[in-house]
Design a protein that fits this description.
- This protein has helices at residues 5-24, 29-53, 59-65, 76-93, 102-120, 135-152, 158-176, 193-217, and strands spanning 127-128, 131-132, 187-188, 191-192.
- With 218 residues, it is mainly α.
- It has one domain (5-217).
- The chain starts with a helix and ends with a helix.
Amino acid sequence: MSIHVYPFLVGIACGISFFYFNSYSKNKFSKNLLFLFLVLTSSFLGAKLLFLLTLPKHIKFSISSVSFLNSGGYVFYGGLILGIISFYFFTKLNKNFSKKFIIPALCLGHGIGRLACYQAGCCYGLNYKGIVLPVQLLEASILFLMFLFFHNRKNKNFFYQSKQYLLIYSSVRFLLEFLRDDQLRGFYFGLSTSQIISICILFGLAIEKTLNKKSSLN
């Protein structure tokens, strides 16, 4: 019986991040477990859908050649977007659900997930004189530092932390994409799919900040 490293490490990532969140949060275990199931299911679906959408002319080939579970073929931003949507509806139905530790848990799980990408050989870096840059390990290291940063600021308002997370990660991801050589996940107007989404996030944060300033002045 062979063990596929990618889904194994992804499972480890989910388990550790959930253990961290459940240990610190004041929610009931059953609520946290339901939250994990709904958000993870939608996130995996979103990550796979965005991957396929970046290859509209080759969807059949992508489905047949890339395993849905045992290898790459996911785009993180797709998972983040659909995960946020399911998170929104979950918290609307569970208004007393504590959200304080979600951001550091996300960084922790994502960091371990990037180790899975390294083992699977996806999301690879540029080939420099025969050496492939380990950009997955670089991103994992940054995500672990983000985990420590947000863990130490865990008492901050969740929405404030969320904006900080989006600002930091989208900036980092935009720059890291220059070190990647993973054309499979889409490249448009000289920018990767993830760089375009990063720009949209940063632009959205800038608009939100401007509107908040105007409202405070009024």
